[in-house]
């Protein structure tokens, strides 16, 4: 198994889906990711109970393991947040997975383009495109224009 090569501190994920509405999900988790020790992946929690209730810790841990995708790391959960009407396991599992995937990208084990799919994760040094700037959409639009040019179809 590959271990996280460098520390990535201050990784966070805030999942906000239909907050306050029917069936909404809310979760907020902050963690530091470090290279693993001799025992492999280890996940510890230092977040206060009122910031990250114990009933959601298993979901966060499951999400972190899922997001690491076989990469070993020492993870220290440092903070969190809860909005009781919308707090659900699925939100905390998603937050854990997004954080872990972000740490793997930030450590250089996955390509920078993978960060585009991480909607709720944030970490120091994360490249954020300007609003409306979507390189994949721009490339697709150019392919469509080229296809219309080569086929003789009228373009706008």
Q: What are its keywords?
A:
22% strand; alpha+beta; 3 helices; 156 residues; five-stranded mixed sheet
Order of helices and strands: EEEHEHEH
Strand percentage:
15-25%
Question: Largest sheet at a glance?
Answer: 5 strands, mixed
Helical fraction equals 25-40%
Strand order of the largest sheet: 3-4-2-1-5
Task: Assign the structural class, choosing from mainly alpha, mainly beta, alpha/beta, alpha+beta, or little secondary structure.
Answer: alpha+beta
First-residue to last-residue Cα separation: 52 Å
Return the average pLDDT rounded to an integer.
Answer: 88
What is the β-strand count?
A: 5
Write a short abstract of this structure.
Helix content is 30%, strand content 22%.
Provide structural commentary.
This protein is globular. The model has no long low-confidence stretch (mean pLDDT 88). α1 (57-68) packs parallel to α2. The protein is of the alpha+beta class and 156 residues long. The longest helix has 18 residues, at 89-106. It has a five-stranded mixed β-sheet, with helices on one face. It is built from three helices and five strands. The protein starts with 7 loop residues before the first strand and ends in a 5-residue tail after the last helix.
